[in-house]
Automatic annotation (TrEMBL):
It holds the Pfam family Cytochrom_C. The lineage of its organism: Bacteria, Pseudomonadati, Verrucomicrobiota, Methylacidiphilae, Methylacidiphilales. It comes from the Bacteria. This is Cytochrome C. The chain crosses the membrane at residues 5-26, 32-53. Residues 111-206 form the Cytochrome c domain. Keywords: Heme, Iron, Membrane, Metal-binding, Transmembrane, Transmembrane helix. PROSITE patterns: CYTC. It comes from Methylacidiphilum kamchatkense Kam1. One of its GO terms (molecular function) is metal ion binding.
Length: 224
């Protein structure tokens, strides 16, 4: 059985009232201690609820959960399709494909994603871009950037490499060479390994179920 925020809130309030009523039984409501009991009980109940919700959230955002795939998802084709039942776009995990010419073990993939995340942090990418709703909106949102068909329809022919991941890695190392978007990204002096790690991180991000965020990414004419 699943509980939403409304059920949890109502349950917490009822629990506070019931427990407090037991402890204040026989006391006058004008006594300071009467409301002191409510204050203490409500604080303890809310702390317990938040503690449980925190662990529940950590479980849901861990690798391999329903929303966050395993790092080895980079070994698969990833799509973004509309789900009429859920009424939003959902990432789809397809058949296996090589990523930078190899199949990555879980340990290798985890190390790659960790490095990609650290590279993004070290270059302050969020000063211009957005990931999972965090960051700035001066440059394109990166949450589903792996799925942007412009990599293959516009940039890959300019760079002349065989795969999308190679296209993104080459572009990230020399963005000033390729006339793409109106606002050009500065050269962040990424090494080849750093660029590959960032591409791996972005591919992994595109496979996270973000409740359809960014909104309309899958059908926006401007995006495609």
């Amino acid at each position: 059985m699943k509980f939403g925020w409304l059920e949890i809130t109502l349950f917490s309030i009822v629990l506070v009232v019931v427990i407090s009523a037991i402890f204040v039984r026989g006391k006058n409501w004008l006594e300071p201690g009467f409301w002191g009991v409510f204050a203490i009980v409500s604080s303890l109940v809310m702390f317990s609820v938040l503690w449980l919700l925190t662990f529940d959230t950590l479980k849901k955002i861990s690798f391999g959960s329903a929303r966050v795939p395993s790092p080895t998802v980079i070994n698969h084709k990833i799509g973004f399709e509309y789900d009429p039942d859920k009424k939003r776009y959902m990432p789809t995990i397809g058949e296996e494909e090589l990523f930078f010419g190899k199949k990555w073990s879980e340990q290798e993939a985890t190390q790659l994603l960790t490095k990609g995340k650290l590279v993004i942090q070290s270059r302050n990418c969020m000063d211009c871009h957005t990931l999972l709703g965090n960051g700035a909106y001066f440059a394109p949102d990166l949450t589903k950037s792996w799925l942007d068909p412009k990599w293959q329809t516009m940039i890959q022919p300019m760079i002349g490499v065989a795969t999308k991941e190679e296209t993104m890695a080459k572009w990230l190392q020399n963005p000033e060479y390729y006339g793409t978007w109106q606002r050009r990204m500065p050269n962040l002096k990424l090494t080849e390994e750093e660029a590959k790690a960032v591409v791996g991180y972005l591919k992994f991000m595109s496979a996270i179920d973000t409740n359809g965020f960014p909104d309309h990414f899958g059908k926006s004419a401007a995006t495609f």
